[in-house]
Amino acid sequence: MTLSGLLFFALGNNVQAGDLPDKQAELKLAAPAPDADYLKMRSLATIPEGAFGEKVRLGYQLFVNTQQLRGQYVGNELNCVNCHMDAGRRANASPLWAAYLAYPAYRKKNDKVNSYQERIQGCFTYSMNGKAPESGSEPLVALSAYSYWLAMGGLMDKYGVTGAVPELSDADLLKGGKREDFVLPEAIAKAMTVDERAKLPGRGFPAIPKPEQAYSPARGERVYRAHCQSCHGENGEGLAMGGVYSLPPLWGPNSFNWGAGMHRVNTAANFIYENMPLGKSVQLSHQEAWDVAAFVVSHERPQDPRLEGDKVMELSKRYHQHQGYYGKSLGEGAVLGTQSYPINPAKQ
Fold it and tell me: Which run of H or of E encompasses 53?
């Protein structure tokens, strides 16, 4: 029996835990509407010259090639663009323009209201298995400037406001756009409330229907071999040439850690259904998306940075009562999380 087979029989329906209390609760998302009116992004060629434009341009560069921060703030082989498609511009692929307008917001993950820069810091800590850049640092200002420029440009074009995107101070850029005091052109301010701006169509990864059968890593392995292995490797290791990864690792030491949102089965299923295989999205059935997501996230990966000592089960009870495998028994194998890979390791 394969490892995935053991997983299936060991976990069965016990991991269909959508109703359990969840310290990492994600955004409540709906399925995409066929007639959704998504914001349209301005061409990157229209990023302005000058100091503000340089911040926007640097934010774009860091977003698509986050590996330039490896050894400083990045501890794996991923880039931001691996999860946020088309340089964070694509609707239904967790676009930056929608995220920027949804913060500041409360997050159960750290039990506080997070500014936009704090949300980005979380991405570095978990999804990038690294270290959060210091508050107000150049990378956070740049990534915030790029996100703001996308969002404001899209809103201005939607409501017929011409001209360049208004510049903001670094302090305002870092806060995010879900604020009563967020400065907007009058036409946009009259057209949308703060809450409406925070819930733009296309935000996050749209939720797909629950599977008809309990999701199965065993079935998911067959989906993976047929549709994913050619890009991500037999063991989820990704594809690198000359030491540069062109396709990301999905598990193992070089992928996202156990604290990242993508380690949940439901989040991974939503992302996979809408965006994978790369360049051929919406190819799998809902059931296949759930199954292959379960297979991918049922492998060991870097540790959850919130772990204290070796108290995996204690951390699991506190933060992992959701659709994931951290702290779960894998048949005759080790409990996932007990043999995790290091947090923020040096590049080998």
Answer: helix 51-64
Confidence of residue 17 (pLDDT cuts 50, 70, 90): very low
In this predicted model, what pLDDT tens digit does every residue of 181-202 receive, in sequence order?
999 999 999 999 999 999 999 9
The amino acid present at 141, given as its one-letter code, is: V
Element (H, E) at 112: strand 112-114
Write down the pTM of the prediction.
Answer: 0.88
Buried b (16+ CB within 10 A) or exposed e, 212-230: eebbbbbbbbebbeebbee
Amino acid present at 195: D
CA distance 84 to 94: 6
Q: At what angle do helices 138-158 and 116-125 cross, to 10 degrees?
A: 120
Beta-bridge partner residues of 247: 239
Which 3 state secondary structure label does DSSP give 244?
A: strand
Exposure string over 47-78, b if 16+ CB within 10 A, otherwise e = beeeebbebbbbbbebbbebbebbeebbbbbb
Q: Which helix (H) or strand (E) holds 170?
A: helix 170-175
Query: What CA–CA distance (Å, rounded) separates 135 from 118?
Result: 8
Q: What are phi and psi of 98, to 5 degrees?
A: -75, -40
Give the angle subtended at the CA of 215 by the CAs of 245 and 34, to the nearest 5°: 75
Half-sphere exposure of 70 (CA within 13 A, CB side): 16
Under DSSP, is residue 74 helix (H, G, I), strand (E, B) or coil?
strand
Residue 34, exposed/middle/buried by CB under 10 A (0-12, 13-18, 19+)? exposed
Which pLDDT tens digit goes with each residue over 94-127? Answer: 999 999 999 998 877 677 888 999 999 999 999 9
Q: Is the pLDDT of residue 25 over 60?
A: no
Closest CA to 63 of 40, 84, 81: 81
Q: Which residues are within 8 A (CB) of 253 and not within 5 positions of it... i.e. 6 or more apart?
A: 76, 301, 302, 341, 342, 345
